[in-house]
Specification:
The protein contains five helices and 14 strands. The strands form four sheets. It has a six-stranded mixed sheet, with helices on one face. The protein is of the alpha+beta class. Helix content is about 25%, strand content about 35%.
Length: about 190
């Protein structure tokens, strides 16, 4: 998804929630300002859907919840809210909130040309403040390529690059799968 600043609108978090309920599209809320989430490509949508389905199938009958791009994440310690392309929470504290989650263990962002730098930089900086997050997954919509930022046992973030023929390891949810499963049926330009 592409985030575009929506004029000069500024809100408190409570005003943002009330305002967004009346909108046709979703908006991220960062530092009091709202950013419209515009649509992505068909590949972007299909890749996100496939990845979320694979996660959901793996976590079926578990205490974890697999969420798509309709679910907000509150950036821990802030009043900021974003809409990743997918997320997983296994934290009991996220069970009863209907507007957002706070404690994802895994976040997925499908990259676009306009958001890749932000997703790899400032957005990851914001997300990694959360001590529960273990896997930040960046998925290319232009080629078969997935980069996973994984927080190891020492609390350090390491990047693992996956390409055609690789087995992806999502340690946060104990899942291994071939990269081809995520990209099955995708036609690149």
């Amino acid at each position: 998804m592409v985030a575009v600043k929506d004029s000069d609108l500024r809100f408190t978090p409570q005003e943002y929630f009330a305002w967004e309920e009346q909108q046709l599209e979703r908006h991220e809320y960062i530092d009091g300002e709202v950013y419209a989430m515009s649509g992505g490509t068909i590949n972007h949508s299909e890749i996100a859907s496939k990845f979320n389905r694979l996660l959901g199938n793996h976590l079926d009958n578990s205490a974890c919840r697999t969420l798509n791009s309709d679910a907000r994440i509150n950036i821990l310690g802030t009043d900021d809210y974003s809409y990743p392309d997918g997320s997983v929470t296994c934290d009991e504290r996220d069970r009863n909130n209907t507007q957002y989650i706070i404690y994802p263990c895994l976040i997925i962002e499908v990259l676009s040309d306009s958001t890749e730098a932000y997703d790899r930089g400032e957005k990851f900086y914001r997300y990694r403040r959360n001590p529960i997050l273990q896997d930040y997954v960046l998925v290319s919509a232009r080629s078969m390529a997935i980069d996973i930022y994984h927080k190891n046992d020492a609390g350090e973030w390491v990047i693992i690059n996956y390409r055609a023929g690789d087995i992806i390891e999502l340690k946060s949810i104990n899942l291994s799968l071939s990269i081809e499963q995520v990209y099955r049926g995708i036609v690149f330009e």
